[in-house]
């Protein structure tokens, strides 16, 4: 199938735009590659330090340099359900490496925080910056230069993007990402959301809320709704860094363990001492990122990836912008309905045919680059297959080839909607993005008076006081990366949903984030320039008429002399101290805009 001409054009634009920075990056990777296995250049003392805790067989192999040494970079902790299964992975990986004639060592750990725990709390103001901390920590782990390849253990919101940034810094090494998988299905996400709204409206007590939440989040594995964590897993498959079909296999099962062992073996095979050398810099090219954006749109994925993909790409010298996402969204059919864009969870999606069916169907319709390099080899067609265990042996077999539930998963020729649902907005308030895959058509255009708030707690107080009446656009400013680290404002979702349910026209406009759980209320997010940078949001007043139009792609205010108004100033102490925030002042002072990935790495 010929490539869709828009996909081909956008890809070529990205290649042209990125040519100088990409060429410089690849030159650095070629120079690193030419030095060969790094530990051979270490002093005998340095090597002895690196091998001292290994067993005798591993020491002999490491000292001889006769086999590949695999770095394990792990985000394990047992507070995050998604990362708790990683406790068992190092032993599985070490055994698999030895069976393949190599060795494996835990090179280091990286922090992993849960946005679900910190929603609406001060800790959320560290969340986005944790991505860059993870990249730094992973780079420290790999800086010992004793490794021929790496496996990365991470799942959730900032962890995978941070690990990808680090993997690109060591792009001359092969890298395989090993997921833990989603938890089994519990209380449905729709029922959980209803209880949250009932609690916000005072209709049920906290005991009922707690019971519902514990029934939804009940065991090891990723949360089952299609938020940022599961969007990350989809991306790793579309971009060729997972083994085919690995994303949504549940934890602590024989198939999950077999995929983990095979991932370790494959990483060694991709190393310079293996038989299929494939460094990560060859996998994550411009086409891989375009494939990732197509996957994001086709699945109705998290708005957080509008920031993370840009930061991930820049780490490899590739320059993406929001217009690329919008242009690709227009040609990408929305093929999946997974909560919050539908009632199903990721386990239901996987059972219906999942990513294997989706990738195959998109390939058939010319909507993916088929010839990208992947950790599996053989181009993206390998990702139409699914893993199975037969007599204890792992193999890949043809997937369903069709949707087994068209209420969850549909072909590109008969999608839920013709576009992916990510829209770039622009106007006299700046630029923003909106996810509309779950927003009903009648809610995609709103013109109403603004109510201005400088933090989400003030919104909640106004709601409780009964002040949010009539049609309105809730503006929450001073929530950008320079102001307070750009927290997610997902805890506002129940309140805004209640207002919409009452028949009010309501929208959110913010320079903050809304999260992968963005839902039915229209939300113009990531507004640039942010209020802290003197953006127009800082000059808005209560009662200004705002127009948020996701159909045309505009974000406007009807106000004479807007630029002549004095800009509001943020509370100088807001978001600066407590819960470790004082330690991140340097991040707030150097971070780039959301449009450039909200990163401290030259964004």
From TrEMBL:
Dihydroxy-acid/6-phosphogluconate dehydratase N-terminal domain span: 70-381
Pfam family, one: ILVD_EDD_N
Family per similarity comment: Belongs to the IlvD/Edd family.
Keyword Isomerase: no
Name of the protein described by the UniProt record: Phosphogluconate dehydratase
A GO molecular function held by the record: 4 iron, 4 sulfur cluster binding
CC annotations in GO: cytosol
Keyword RNA-binding included in the entry's annotation: no
Pathway this chain belongs to: Carbohydrate metabolism; Entner-Doudoroff pathway
Originating organism: Pelagivirga sediminicola
Function: Catalyzes the dehydration of 6-phospho-D-gluconate to 2-dehydro-3-deoxy-6-phospho-D-gluconate.
Catalyses which reaction(s): 6-phospho-D-gluconate = 2-dehydro-3-deoxy-6-phospho-D-gluconate + H2O
Binding residue positions for [4Fe-4S] cluster: 156, 223
UniProt keyword terms in alphabetical order: 4Fe-4S, Carbohydrate metabolism, Gluconate utilization, Iron, Iron-sulfur, Lyase, Metal-binding
GO biological process: D-gluconate metabolic process; Entner-Doudoroff pathway through 6-phosphogluconate
Limits of the Dihydroxy-acid/6-phosphogluconate dehydratase C-terminal domain: 407-598
Gene3D superfamilies: IlvD/EDD C-terminal domain-like
Cofactor(s) annotated in UniProt: [4Fe-4S] cluster
EC number: 4.2.1.12
Cofactor: binding comment: Binds 1 [4Fe-4S] cluster.
């Amino acid at each position: 199938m010929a490539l869709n001409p828009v996909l081909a054009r956008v890809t070529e634009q990205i290649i042209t735009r990125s040519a100088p920075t990409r060429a410089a990056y690849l030159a650095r990777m070629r120079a690193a590659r030419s030095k060969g296995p790094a530990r051979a250049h270490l002093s005998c003392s340095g090597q002895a330090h690196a091998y001292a805790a290994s067993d005798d067989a591993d020491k002999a192999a490491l000292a001889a340099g006769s086999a590949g040494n695999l770095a394990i970079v792990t985000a394990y902790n047992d507070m995050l359900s998604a990362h708790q299964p990683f406790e068992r992975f190092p032993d599985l990986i070490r055994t698999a490496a030895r069976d393949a004639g190599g060795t494996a060592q835990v090179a280091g750990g990286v922090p992993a925080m849960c946005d679900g725990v910190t929603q609406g709390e001060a800790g959320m103001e560290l969340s986005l910056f944790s991505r860059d901390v993870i990249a730094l920590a992973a780079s420290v782990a790999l800086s010992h230069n004793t490794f021929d390849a790496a496996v990365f253990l991470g799942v959730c919101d900032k962890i995978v993007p941070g690990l990808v940034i680090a993997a690109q810094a060591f792009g001359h090494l092969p890298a395989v990402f090993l997921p833990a998988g989603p938890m089994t299905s519990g209380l449905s996400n729709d029922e959980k959301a209803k209880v949250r709204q009932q609690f916000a409206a005072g209709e049920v007590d906290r005991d009922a809320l707690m019971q519902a939440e514990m029934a939804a989040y009940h065991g090891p594995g990723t949360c089952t709704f299609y938020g940022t964590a599961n969007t990350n897993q989809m991306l790793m498959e579309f971009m060729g860094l997972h083994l085919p079909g690995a994303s949504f296999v549940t934890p602590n099962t024989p198939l999950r363990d077999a995929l983990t062992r095979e991932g370790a073996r494959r990483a060694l095979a991709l190393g310079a001492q293996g038989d299929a050398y494939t460094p990560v810099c060859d996998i994550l090219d411009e086409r891989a990122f375009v494939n990732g954006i197509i996957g994001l749109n086709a699945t109705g994925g998290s708005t957080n990836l509008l920031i993370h993909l840009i930061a991930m790409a820049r780490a490899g010298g590739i320059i993406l912008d929001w217009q690329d996402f919008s242009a690709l969204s227009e040609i990408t059919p929305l093929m999946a309905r997974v909560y919050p864009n539908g009632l199903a969870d990721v386990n239901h999606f996987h059972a219906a045919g999942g990513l294997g069916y989706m990738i195959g169907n998109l390939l058939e319709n010319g909507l993916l680059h088929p010839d990208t390099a992947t950790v599996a080899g053989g181009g993206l067609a390998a990702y139409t297959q699914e893993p199975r265990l037969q007599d204890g042996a792992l193999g890949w077999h043809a997937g369903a080839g069709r949707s087994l539930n068209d209420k969850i998963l549909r072909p590109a020729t008969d999608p839920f909607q013709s576009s992916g649902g990510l829209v770039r907005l622009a106007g006299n308030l700046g630029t923003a993005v909106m996810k509309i895959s779950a927003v009903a058509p009648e809610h995609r255009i709103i013109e109403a008076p603004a109510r201005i708030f400088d933090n989400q707690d003030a919104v909640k107080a106004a709601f409780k006081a009964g002040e949010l009446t009539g049609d309105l656009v809730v503006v929450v400013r001073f929530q950008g990366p320079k102001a307070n680290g750009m927290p997610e404002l997902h805890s506002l979702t129940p309140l805004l949903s209640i207002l919409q349910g009452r028949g009010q026209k309501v929208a959110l406009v913010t320079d903050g984030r809304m999260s992968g759980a963005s839902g039915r209320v229209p939300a113009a997010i990531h507004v640039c320039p942010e209020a802290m940078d003197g953006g127009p949001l800082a000059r808005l007043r209560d009662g200004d008429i705002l127009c948020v139009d996701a159909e045309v792609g505009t974000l406007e205010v009807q106000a004479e002399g807007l630029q002549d108004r004095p800009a509001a100033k943020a509370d100088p102490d807001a978001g600066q101290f407590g819960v470790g925030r004082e330690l991140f002042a340097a991040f707030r002072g150097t971070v780039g805009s959301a449009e450039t990935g909200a990163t401290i790495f030259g964004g």
